[in-house]
Every structure is written in C-alpha cells, then in structure tokens.
Design brief:
The protein is an alpha/beta fold. Among the domains are: about 120 residues, Ubiquitin-like (UB roll); about 80 residues, Alpha-Beta Plaits, CATH 3.30.70.20; about 220 residues, Fe-only Hydrogenase (Larger Subunit), Chain L, domain 3 (3-Layer(aba) Sandwich), CATH 3.40.950.10. Helices cover about 35% and strands about 15% of the residues. The chain contains 19 helices and 22 strands. The strands form 7 sheets. Strands 2-1-5-3-4 form a 5-stranded mixed beta sheet, with helices on both faces. The radius of gyration is 25 Å and the shape is globular.
C-alpha cells in the first residue's frame, strides 16, 4: 500500500493501481473515454488527464501508476481546460448527426459531453475519414464516427485473438480496420461482434434487420414466427432499466405478441433437440472408437457460428471434429418450415422465421448456403437483443407494464437443460445430463445436476466423469473416464485446437463458445458487458434452469412426440436432412480451400 493525496484527501491505495483505479476505488470520478476496465488501457484519448504535483505535464490517469506521496488534482482549472479542449478536438472530427445515430442516448461520447460541458463548433476543419463498410452481413463499420480509441483493436487481437482490426496508416489518415483497406467480409472476421460491444460510439454496430422484420409483419401474405435464445431473457430487461440478471421471459413473450408475430416460439425447444442429436452423435463416435472403428474424437460443439467460422478459417483441416448438428435456432427454423408448416397446413414458403439472438454472427449464419432446406432458408432474419429492444420502444410498447405470456406450442416447451445453453459450460452440462442417463439409466450424481468444475468464467475448464455399471448395450464404456473441456472466447479455443491439431488432446468432448462467457455476453447483447454483469446474467440463466420442473432434454414430452410423429429417430434420415449440416474450408486468408466436410 502507498499513501496518495487526491483532491486534498489522504488515501491508502494498492501500489499496483493506476491513478484512475485508485480514484475509482475511493468514489472519485475521473472522466475517461477510451479506457475499459480489465479490457483496454491505451491512453489514446487523454480525457482522463490529471495534474500531479511535481510533474511538468498533465498525466493520463489510466496509464500512470500511483507512487507513495503522490499529490493529485483531478478537477483543477488546468485539468478542466485541457479536458474540454481534448473533447472538442475529438468532436471536431466526428459527425454531429446524433438524433439519427443508432447510438443516440447510449453513446459514451454523448455522455462525456454532458460531464465536460464542451462548446459545440469552436473547432472545425477537415474530416479525416468518411467511408462506410457494409460488406459484412453482421457488422457495419462507419469510419466517420470512429474516435480511434482502439478498444475494438484490443478486443479483436488480445481477447479474441482473431486480429482482423488494427490501426492502418498514420496521423490524420489513421483508420481502424482490416489491412490493405479490405472490406470486413473479405477477410477472416468471425462476425462475433465483440467489437460492437466495446465501441463507445456508432462506428461499429450490428447490421440493422428491423425494416426487413417490419416489412414481413406488414405483409398479410406472410405467417411470421419468432424465436428467442436463452441468453436474451437474462439481458433484455437491461434495455428497459432493469438490473442485469433480471429474468424477463414472460414480458418478452408478451411484447413479441404485441408486435404482431403470428407465433412466438422458444429456441430452447431446439436446444433440447440439439442435445438429443448431439448426444447420440457423441455416443456413436465413442461406440466406434471403443470398438476399434474409425471415429473422430474429440467431438466439438457446433452451436456458436462465430466459433464455426473461426475454425473454418484457422483450422480447416480439423473440421471432422465438429458435431454436424446445426445450431438450435437453425434447427427450429427448419422445423418451422416443415413440421410446423404441416401441422397448421401452410405453404412453408409463406412462413417468415425471425430469430432474436444475443449474437451478431447469427446474421452471417443465416446466409450460409448450407442453411437451406427444400429451397427455403431455415431462418429469414436475425435481430439482436439490442435490436429487439429498439423495436419494442419504436412500437410504443410499455415493456415494464406488461404481464407474463407463454410460448406457443409445439415449439415452445423446453427443459432447464436448454436454458443453460446461454452460458459457457451450459451445452456441455446439458449433454452430460442426458448422455450419462442414457448410458447408465441413472440420473447424473451431482448436486442439483450441476457439473461445477465447468461453471464460471475461467478461460478453459475441464471435468472427468467415470462411467460405472452402464446398461448392457453400453458395457464397452464401463470404467471409461469421460474427459471434457469447455472454453469461451476464441483465445481459449486456440489453446484447445492447438492440442487437437497436434493429436495431443486428452478429451472426448469439447464445448466452444465464440464470446467470452458464452452467449450471455454475445456481440448483440446490451452494453456494457463486464465480468460483474456476466456473472449476474449467468446466475439468472441457472435460476431459470433450477426453477423448471423438467431439467433434462430427453424428458421434454414435445421432443419425444416430435420423434414419434416426424423425425422417427435421432441421427435418422429426416434428422440428417433437416438438423445437420456441412462446413466450408475457408483458410486463414479467407481463401476457399478444396472440399467440404460433413
């Protein structure tokens, strides 16, 4: 500990803290802009400057460590004048179309202006950049709004390890983007959208799909159905003033009905279905491997489209390790245009499927040619959680006053196992609950069915499960120590995939989610997202699970009925046709390689 004086207050603080951290720990607010706790510290904007006695120049408080005896002034006349000038310099190279910007009232630059009370228009001159990159189906880059904070660079390079976004050129000509001025869709961007979560302004945002959805709702010839992912219900409330981690499942369903959707389904139904298909796929691979037949292990989950695009680019020779299951919302879309269409007697071509997802990569996923059955795309439009909130507000729906609605059947009933798909470790735990019971005939012998070693926010988590006294048909698994691993964020995926590609992986089954923490912090979720908020959303997801009467996917009565009436059996012909997919070997430079994997 060291003693410092901040604004005439003598304080004992940790000697490893920056001035900004020390001030925050003692409830002293220093305006800042480019800094993000535990994510990004670069000092590019200088808004957080403070006066340190004995120092010739003002110091960037996010970069300078405290020292014993340091005397700091955060609000002196010199500091206030400098901060105001720095803000006005940023503003001089920024469009002032706030009223029409998607970030209006949720813009950090706007909020900073309220604190600093800068005068508009004192500094005017040439603008450095104006191009808009709309090539990606997921993300829009509007460089006229970029403030060069480099948050997105840190997230793309250091958190995700993809490295698509970097500072190009120098000085006034600096642009944040892919090298050689290439458009985003032509490089190995995985569309995860983590850049859109940390961008403080409107320079990076999801590609807006609202008009396409409104057009479908206004078309009397369309039967418009909507489905919602598990992570959405644990975060949507934040857009309406609720605390992070507040479950708003029922209100969300009612709001979707108010918007005019003809049916409101739950992606969780298809999450249960995914466990049946994926669990049987794992058992099939284990059976072959234990009996000396060719089988690719470890098997790796395929629910996260950002992760899938990453592995297609970075490890194109390892695609056989991926489960062939489509992601849950694509499964439900395929069922909506086949099973459900038959049920209600409507032409599948008249059904318009909207998915509300925590994810920007889902917008890319629905454009994949593999996601089409009988000439119909499985899903027609994807809205992020943020977009749904805008849609509800635009329609004049008072979200907080709504009562609780219920999802429609037959694609609206789910178990608790499906709910936990929304958080890292959830897919793995849901699969273990079912696979263990299929193999042994007994319930998973863990407290509250939770596999605690794969819960939480650690980068890589592992578990081992001993198979004892299995059913007769699985006797060959008796004594097998099933080894599993879970990671979220693509840096963790690289750690596990390096083992796989070197034939050194000790695991049978691996879960990968493209975003840190899983879907609860997807690229389309409300801002901000930090570890504290992740934990609250995660707790909400587990509460949703624990409050369900049915908590194992194979117990879902509507899933059982679906197989009896339509699919016949897991991994059967109909299932493969509708619920499974193939992958594309893209290569690290987005070059299409020869051959596809199924």
């Amino acid at each position: 500990m060291v003693q410092v004086t901040i604004n005439n207050k003598k304080l004992l603080v940790d000697d490893d803290m920056t001035i900004l951290e020390a001030a925050r720990a003692n409830n002293i607010n220093i305006p800042n802009f480019c800094y993000m706790k535990d994510v990004h510290r670069f000092g590019s904007c200088r808004i957080c400057v403070v006066e340190v006695e004995g120092a010739r120049n003002l110091q960037a408080s996010c970069m300078v460590k405290v020292r014993d005896g340091m005397v700091i002034h955060t609000n002196s006349e010199r500091v206030k004048k400098a901060r105001k000038m720095l803000y006005e310099l940023i503003l001089s190279d920024h469009p002032k179309n706030c009223l029409t910007c998607a970030r209006n009232q949720s813009c950090e630059l706007q909020k900073l202006g309220e604190l600093i009370h800068a005068e508009d228009g004192r500094l005017e001159g040439e603008r450095s950049k104006s191009e808009i990159d709309a090539s990606s189906p997921s993300i829009i880059r509007d460089m006229s709004k970029c403030v060069l904070c480099r948050r997105c660079v840190t997230v793309c390079n250091e958190i995700q390890g993809v490295g698509v976004l970097n500072a190009q050129n120098r000085g006034f000509k600096t642009v944040i983007g892919p090298g050689a001025d290439l458009p985003l869709n032509s490089v190995n961007c995985v569309m995860c959208g983590q850049c859109t979560v940390v961008c403080p302004v409107g320079a990076l945002q999801e590609k807006d799909s609202l008009q396409a959805v409104w057009d479908a709702l206004y078309d009397n010839g369309r039967h418009v159905v909507v489905q919602t992912a598990p992570a959405v219900r644990a975060a949507l409330g934040e857009e309406f003033g609720y605390e992070p981690g507040t479950l708003v499942t029922g209100k969300m369903v009612t709001a979707l009905r108010e918007l005019g959707f003809d049916a409101v389904f739950d992606t969780n139904f298809a999450a249960d279905l995914t466990i049946i298909e994926e669990g049987n796929e794992l058992l099939d691979r284990l059976t072959k491997a234990m009996n000396g037949k060719p089988a690719t292990l470890p098997m790796i989950t395929s629910c996260s489209p950002g992760w899938i695009k990453y592995v297609e680019h970075t490890y194109p020779d390892e695609l056989d390790h991926l489960s062939t299951c489509k992601s849950p919302h694509m499964m439900l879309g395929a069922l909506a245009k086949s099973y459900y269409a038959d049920k209600i007697g409507i032409d599948p071509r008249k059904i318009f499927v909207v998915s509300v997802m925590p994810c920007t990569a889902k917008k890319f996923e629905i454009t994949r040619p593999e996601m089409v059955n009988n000439g119909c795309p499985n899903v027609d439009a994807v809205l992020t959680t943020r977009e749904l909130a805008r849609m509800i507000k635009e329609a004049g729906v008072d979200f907080r006053s709504l009562g609780d609605g219920e999802f429609d059947n037959p694609l609206g009933i789910s178990t608790g196992a499906a709910d936990i798909f929304g958080t890292t470790g959830g897919v793995m735990e849901a699969a273990i609950r079912t696979v263990y019971e299929i193999v042994t005939g007994r319930e998973l012998p863990f407290e509250n069915l939770h596999v605690k070693s794969i819960m939480g926010l650690d980068t890589v988590k592992t578990a081992e499960l001993l198979i004892e006294n299995p059913k007769d048909e699985y006797k060959f698994l008796d004594g097998v120590q099933l080894k599993v691993a879970v990671t979220s964020g693509l840096k963790g995926a690289k750690m596990l995939m390096d083992q796989v590609s070197a034939n050194e992986s000790p695991y049978h089954f691996i879960e990968v989610m493209g975003c840190p923490g899983g879907c609860i912090s997807g690229g389309g979720q409300p801002r901000p997202t930090d570890d504290e908020i992740r934990k609250k959303r995660m707790d909400a997801i587990y509460r949703e699970d624990e409050n369900k009467q049915l908590r194992k996917s194979h117990e879902n009565p509507f899933i059982i009925k679906l197989y009896e009436e339509f699919l016949v059996k897991p991994l059967g012909h109909k299932s493969h046709e509708l619920l499974h997919t193939a992958y594309t070997r893209r290569g690290i430079f987005n070059e299409l390689l020869q051959g596809r994997h199924r």
